[in-house]
Specification:
- This protein is mainly α.
- It has 8 helices and 2 strands.
- Strands 1-2 form a two-stranded antiparallel ribbon.
- The longest helix has 33 residues.
């Protein structure tokens, strides 16, 4: 049995490695990104889209249902390992947005980025934003869920545009070999 445990990847180690790469990229290229004529307007549009999405999700009750599921029912989707849906590019975007990462997992058994009051990063993978589960569909009217999904479309489209632009700039500046920037999962 010990042999099998040693073969399982450590999700904390993987996210720490991704964070280190994102921090290095930010240190080396952050100022260049923030001076790029195309990036700052997109970053601000993304920040506003996240705010609009959060407001819609709050009004729809999705945040409340997630809280009840996680805290009161002891379930929830933000389990350990989910943090590895974050790519290096999403982590780099968070740094460009001024987000500082936690140094360690604050809530045992939960995503590395979950703190006592919820998620600690602003730019999140699509799975973390367009995550509606069976509980949402049983507790929240279908029309409301469709509205929230439509609102989220702007945020997720901007996330794609931003990470694509970050990748293109990095490939231009450093060469076309940065495939690990889109790495997700546990390996």
């Amino acid at each position: 049995m010990r042999y099998l445990r040693e073969k399982r990847p450590d999700p904390t180690r993987l996210i720490e490695e991704k964070i280190a790469v994102a921090e290095d990229l930010y240190r080396l290229w952050g100022e260049s990104f923030l001076r790029d004529p195309d990036l700052p307007p997109l970053i601000e549009a993304y920040r506003r889209a996240v705010e609009v999405s959060n407001q819609a999700m709050g009004e729809a009750g999705t945040f409340r249902e997630c809280y009840l599921c996680s805290v009161e029912d002891g379930q929830g989707c933000c389990k350990i390992g989910l943090e590895n849906e974050c790519t290096v590019l999403i982590l780099l975007l968070n740094r460009l947005l001024g987000v500082n990462f936690p140094e360690e997992r604050e809530v045992p058994g939960r995503c590395f980025f979950v703190g006592p009051l919820g998620c600690k990063i602003l730019a999140r993978p699509m799975l973390c934003r367009d995550y509606f589960c069976r509980r949402h569909y049983t507790k929240i009217p279908e029309k409301t869920m469709a509205w929230v999904t439509a609102v989220l479309n702007e945020e997720l489209t901007l996330l794609y545009r931003l990470t694509s632009l970050l990748r293109a700039r990095l490939e231009f500046w450093t060469g076309d070999f940065l495939q690990e920037l889109d790495l997700t999962g546990y390996t």
